[in-house]
Design a protein that fits this description.
Elements (H helix, E strand, L loop, with lengths): L4 H15 L12 E6 L14 H16 L3 E3 L3 E2 L4 H10 L3 H17 L11 E2 L3 H16 L3 E11 L4 E3 L4 E2 L2 E2 L6 E11 L5 H6 L5 E2 L1 H11 L1 E11 L4 E6 L10 E4 L5 H5 L6 H13 L2 H6 L7 E9 L6 E6 L11 E4 L5 H10 L7 E2 L16 E2 L10 H15 L2 E7 L4 E2 L12 E4 L3 E4 L29 H4 E3 L6 E4 L7 H4 L2 H4 L12 H7 L4 E3 L8 H14 L11 E3 L4 E2 L16 H8 L1 H10 L7 E2 L5 H12 L1 H4 L7 H19 L3 H18 L4 H11 L4 H10 L23 E8 L2 E9 L4 H10 L1 H6 L3 E9 L3 E8 L1
Parallel strand pairs: 1-2, 1-25, 3-4, 10-26, 13-15, 25-26, 27-28, 29-32
Antiparallel strand pairs: 5-6, 5-9, 7-8, 9-20, 11-12, 11-14, 11-19, 13-16, 14-15, 17-18, 21-22, 21-24, 23-24, 29-30, 31-32
Helix pairs in contact: 1-25, 18-19, 19-20, 22-23, 24-25
The structure holds one RNA strand.
Length: 803
RNA sequence: GCGGGCAUGGUGGAAUUGGCAGACACGUAAGAUUUAGGAUCUUAUAUCGCAGAUGUGCAGGUUCAAGCCCUGUUGCCCGCACCA
C-alpha cells in the first residue's frame, strides 16, 4: 500500500476547511474545554521546527477532548505589533501593515500544512483596529482607575532601537531584541501600577495548576519581603526614613547609606561641606547603567556626607551618612541603616571605610572576620531591651517599640517595579489620551475608539527619541474632549505586551463590536483550561496578562479572578549539534522541508516522540524515519485487515493501549503514548491480522497525533463521517489486566527465575509455585531461607543464608 | 552568591514512583529480496565472559530490594542577582 502523504494530507485539509469540524460550538450547555497556545509574532523568517512542538501537543489534547465530547475552543492569532516588523519596514520602505500581512499569510499557510485543528473562524490580529480598539479601551479603564500615571524617570534606553525598554526587556545590560547596549535616560513615561497587584499576583497562584518552576519564578520576581520602616532623626533637624528586614539589629546600626539619587541630598545641599565631591559621585553613578552598577560587585564605593549626621534612635549616638550606589533608589526608601556585623554588603563597606562593627546577635564567629547573617539561631546582645531574645522575637518586640514611639512601623516591600508602558515607536497601539493645556491628561471618549494609527511618511523614530507620530502635527493637535480647549495627543504607543495581555478573552467572542467579549461567552469559556507557552514569558507576558485580568475582574468585566487554570511549558528543540537553533549558528530546520520530505503526520509524530515534552531535545533528521516507517506500516494494516469484531489475542493489548494513550495525553507524556502505539502495531504484525473494527479503533486513537492518515484509513475501511470527531475509544479496565502474571523471583536480590501465577494469587500460592520451580531450587540449594518477601503482582524475594 | 532543573547503551529516550534497568525508536552488524543503489523483511545489539559477573556522573548510607530515598561531591543547563 503506497503511503502518498502529500495527496492524503492535501485531501483532508481541504475537507476540514470545508466542513469546519473544529469550530467551537455556540451551544453553552455543553461541557467546555479551552486549550490555548501562545500566539506567535509573525516574523519574516517563518516558522522553525520549534514552533510546532507546543502547537501539536495542545492540538492532540484538543482533538482528544473533542472526541470525548467536549466543546473545545482551540484558537490561533497573531501578536503582530512590534519592533522587528517596524525595523524591516524602515529598512525596505514598506508599510509595516503590508509586512505584517505578508508574514501572517506565510505563517498561516505553514500552520495549515501541519493539520492543526485551530478554529480559524476566530483568528485575531493585535494590529487590527477592531482588536486594538479594546486594547485601548482596557488602557482607558486602567487610566480611569488611577493605575496609569505619567512619571519622569530614568529609563532603559536602547541605543540602536532608540526606544525605552522595560526592566524585563534588558538582559545583561543589553537590549533583549537587538543586543545593543542600553543606557539610562530621563524621560516622561506612562507607567502601569502592577505593584498595586503584587500581593494578589502571589496569592492568586494558590490553587492554580501551574508547573512549580513557573510559580517559583513569578514569586521570586515579585520578591515580597517583610520588614519595617524606621525614621532616623538627623542633625539637619529632619528625618531620614529607611527600610530594613532586620529591625532587630537596630542597636548595631553604625552608619547609614542613601542612594546617589536620593532627594535629601538636594535638601541638605547648604549644609554639605563636600558637596562637589558628592555631586561628582552622583554624576558618575548616573552614567552607569543598572547593569554596570551591579557588575562592580567586588569594590564598594561611596562618599561620606560631611555636615549632616543621623542619630540612631535606640542608642542615641550620632552616626555618619554615606551615599553609595550599592543602595538602589528604586527599592524601599532608597536609604538603609547599615549593620556591618550582620550584613555582608554593609560589612564590606565598613571594612573599606574603617567604620565600627558592633555585634548584636551572638552565635557567629568573630564579626571582625565576617558578617554573621544567620537568623535561625543566635540571641541578641549589646541591644538593651532586646538582650537575650531570639531574632524572631526581637523583631516583633522592636516593631512594637518603634510603633509605640512613633518612629517606625511594620512594612512589606516588593522587588516588582511598575510597568513602563510607553514606547517611542510607530508600530504599536496609540495611547488614547490627550494633554489639554487646562485639564492635563484626558481620556478620549470611548465612542471614539479605536484611535487609529495615522499614516506617516517615515516610521523612523526622531533623533530625540520621540515617536514618529510626534511629527504629525495635524494629528497631534486636537481639542480637549472635556473643555474643548487646545490639546495635544499622546504620541507614544503601547509596548508589544499590551495586545497579548488580553487576547485569550477576545477569542471567546472575537467579532463582538459592543464589548471586548460578551459576558455570556466569558462566563462560559473562562478560565483557560490549559495554557502552554515558553518559560521566557513567565515574568513578562504571563505576569502582565494575569495583572490585566485581575484588574478586569475587579472592574466586573471578567468572571474569574485568574485567567489560566493550568500552565505548562515545553522544552526547546535544539539543532542537530545540540545547540540552540538560530540563524547565526546555521542549524535551523525549516518545517516546510520536513513536511515535503516526510509529511505533516510524520513531522507531528516525530516532534512528540523526540522526548519529554518539558525537556529540551536535539533535532535529528535521521530519527524521523522511525516515525515515517510506523505510519507506513500503519497504512499497510489495510492489507491484512480481515473480518469484523474482536480478535481474542488482540483484545487485551488493545485495551491496554487505549488506556495508556488516554492517560498519557492528559499527563502530556506524548512520547510514551506513541511508543505504546508502536508496540501495539508490532503486536498486530506478530499476530498477522486484525479486524476492521480493531483497525478503526486504532485509527481513532492515532488520529490526534497523525490526523490525516487516520482519516484516510478510516475512510478506506468504509468508516462513516470524520474520524477526527468520532467518539474516543473507551477501554474496559478489566480487559487491561492479564489473567496470569509473570512474577520475577529473586534470591538475595538477584533475579533467578520467573513464575507464572494467577493475577490474584495469594502469598501461599505464589510461594508454592516459587518453591516448585527448578531454577529457584538450584539457586537456593544448600542454603536456609531466612525471609520470604512477596509483593503481589510485582516480585518475590527470598533471603537465604548458607547453612 | 541565591533559586530551580538535569546526569541512564554508539544516539534520542523508557522504567507503573522503592520491585526483572534499557520499553519504543535511531544507528550498527549479519542474512533475505533486488541488475545495482535505495526501499523493505528477518535476526542480533548495555559491557566482559564458556555456564557467571558487572553496570544508571562520583563517594558513602538506609532497605529483603535503590536509576528512584538520605548525606556528601563533580559537571552541565536555566532563572534572579548589591532588593537592605
Amino acid at each position: 500500500m503506497l503511503y502518498d502523504y502529500t495527496s492524503i494530507e492535501k485531501k483532508w485539509q481541504k475537507v476540514w476547511d470545508e466542513k469546519q469540524p473544529f469550530a467551537a460550538k455556540q451551544d453553552f450547555s455543553l461541557p467546555k474545554y479551552y486549550a490555548l497556545v501562545e500566539f506567535p509574532y509573525p516574523s519574516g523568517q517563518g516558522l522553525h521546527v520549534g514552533h510546532p512542538r507546543p502547537y501539536t501537543a495542545l492540538d492532540i489534547v484538543s482533538r482528544k477532548k473533542r472526541m470525548q465530547g467536549y466543546n473545545v475552543l482551540f484558537p490561533m492569532g497573531w501578536d503582530a505589533f512590534g519592533l522587528p516588523t517596524e525595523n524591516y519596514a524602515i529598512k525596505n520602505k514598506i508599510h509595516p501593515r503590508i509586512v505584517t500581512e505578508r508574514n501572517v499569510a506565510r505563517f498561516k499557510s505553514q500552520l495549515k500544512s501541519l493539520g492543526l485543528s485551530f478554529d480559524w473562524s476566530r483568528e485575531i490580529n493585535t494590529t487590527d483596529p477592531d482588536y486594538y480598539k479594546w486594547t485601548q479601551w482596557i488602557f482607558l479603564q486602567l487610566f480611569k482607575a488611577g493605575l496609569a500615571y505619567k512619571k519622569e524617570m530614568a529609563v532603559n534606553f536602547c541605543t540602536s532601537c532608540k526606544v525605552v525598554l522595560a526592566n524585563e526587556e534588558v538582559v545583561n545590560g543589553s537590549c533583549e531584541r537587538c543586543g545593543a547596549p542600553v543606557i539610562r535616560k530621563v524621560k516622561s513615561q506612562w507607567m502601569l501600577k502592577i505593584t498595586e497587584y503584587a500581593e494578589k499576583l502571589i496569592d492568586g497562584l494558590n490553587g492554580l495548576d501551574f508547573i512549580e518552576r513557573v510559580k517559583t519564578q513569578q514569586i521570586n520576581w515579585i520578591g515580597k519581603s517583610t520588614g519595617a520602616e524606621i525614621d532616623f532623626a538627623t542633625t539637619a533637624g529632619d528625618k531620614l526614613r529607611v527600610y530594613t528586614t532586620r529591625c532587630d539589629t537596630l542597636f548595631g546600626a553604625t552608619y547609614m547609606v542613601i542612594a546617589p539619587e536620593h532627594a535629601m541630598i538636594e535638601k541638605w545641599k547648604p549644609l554639605l561641606q563636600n558637596f562637589d565631591e558628592i555631586r561628582a559621585y552622583q554624576e558618575a553613578a548616573s552614567r552607569k547603567s543598572d547593569f554596570e552598577r551591579t557588575e562592580l560587585v567586588k569594590e564598594k564605593t561611596g562618599v561620606m556626607l560631611s555636615g549632616v549626621r543621623a542619630i540612631n534612635p535606640v542608642t542615641g549616638k550620632e552616626i555618619p551618612i554615606f551615599i553609595s550606589d550599592y543602595v538602589l533608589a528604586g527599592y524601599g526608601t532608597g536609604a538603609i541603616m547599615a549593620v556591618p556585623a550582620h550584613d555582608e554588603r554593609d560589612w564590606e563597606f565598613a571594612k573599606k571605610f574603617g567604620l565600627p562593627i558592633i555585634e548584636v546577635v551572638a552565635g557567629g564567629e568573630d564579626v571582625e572576620k565576617a558578617a554573621y547573617t544567620d537568623t535561625a539561631t543566635g540571641k541578641l546582645v549589646h541591644s538593651g531591651f532586646l538582650d537575650g531574645l531570639e531574632v524572631a522575637e526581637a523583631k516583633k518586640k522592636m516593631i512594637e517599640y518603634l510603633e509605640e514611639k512613633g518612629i517606625g512601623q511594620a512594612r512589606v516591600n516588593f522587588k516588582l517595579r511598575d510597568w513602563v508602558f510607553s514606547r517611542q515607536r510607530y508600530w504599536g497601539e496609540p495611547i488614547p489620551l490627550v494633554n489639554c493645556e487646562n485639564c492635563g491628561w484626558v481620556a478620549i471618549p470611548e465612542e471614539e475608539l479605536p484611535l487609529r494609527l495615522p499614516e506617516v511618511d517615515s516610521y523612523e523614530p526622531t533623533e530625540t527619541g520621540e515617536s514618529p507620530l510626534s511629527l504629525m502635527t495635524d494629528w497631534v493637535n486636537c481639542s480637549c474632549p472635556k473643555c474643548g480647549g487646545r490639546a495635544k495627543r499622546e504620541t507614544d504607543t503601547m509596548p508589544q505586551w499590551a495586545g497579548s495581555s488580553w487576547y485569550f478573552l477576545r477569542y471567546c467572542d472575537p467579532h463582538n463590536d459592543k464589548a471586548l467579549a460578551s459576558p455570556e461567552a466569558l462566563k462560559y469559556w473562562l478560565p483557560v483550561d490549559w495554557y502552554n507557552g515558553g518559560m521566557e514569558h513567565t515574568t513578562l507576558h504571563l505576569l502582565y496578562s494575569r495583572f490585566w485580568h485581575k484588574f478586569l475582574y475587579d472592574q466586573g468585566v471578567v468572571p474569574t479572578p485568574e485567567p489560566y487554570q493550568k500552565r505548562t511549558s515545553h522544552g526547546m528543540i535544539l539543532g542537530e549539534n545540540g545547540e540552540k537553533m538560530s540563524k547565526s549558528r546555521g542549524n535551523v530546520v525549516n518545517p516546510d522541508d520536513i513536511v515535503r520530505d516526510y509529511g505533516a503526520d510524520t513531522m507531528r509524530l516525530y516532534e512528540m516522540f523526540i522526548g519529554d515534552f518539558e525537556q529540551s531535545a536535539p533535532w535529528n533528521t535521521q530519527s524521523i524515519k522511525g516515525c515515517k516507517r510506523f505510519l507506513e506500516r500503519f497504512m499497510n494494516l489495510l492489507d491484512i485487515v480481515k473480518g469484523e469484531g474482536v480478535t481474542p489475542e488482540l483484545e487485551r493489548p488493545m485495551h491496554k493501549m487505549i488506556k495508556k494513550v488516554t492517560q498519557d495525553i492528559d499527563s502530556m507524556r506524548f512520547n510514551t503514548a506513541i511508543a505504546a502505539m508502536m508496540a501495539m502495531l508490532n503486536t498486530v504484525y506478530d499476530h498477522g491480522s486484525l479486524t476492521k473494527d480493531e483497525l478503526d479503533t486504532f485509527a481513532k486513537v492515532l488520529s490526534p497525533f497523525a490526523p490525516h492518515i487516520a482519516e484516510e484509513v478510516h475512510e478506506r475501511i468504509g468508516g462513516k463521517g470524520l474520524v477526527s470527531i468520532a467518539p474516543w475509544p473507551v477501554y474496559d479496565e478489566a480487559k487491561t489486566v492479564d489473567a496470569t502474571v509473570e512474577l520475577p523471583v529473586q534470591v538475595n536480590g538477584k533475579v533467578r527465575g520467573v513464575v507464572s501465577v494467577a493475577k490474584d494469587a495469594d502469598k501461599d500460592a505464589v510461594l508454592a509455585a516459587v518453591h516448585a520451580d527448578e531454577k529457584i531450587q538450584a539457586a537456593r540449594a544448600g542454603s536456609a531461607v531466612v525471609k520470604e518477601i512477596v509483593v503481589p503482582g510485582k516480585i518475590v524475594n527470598l533471603v537465604v543464608k548458607p547453612q
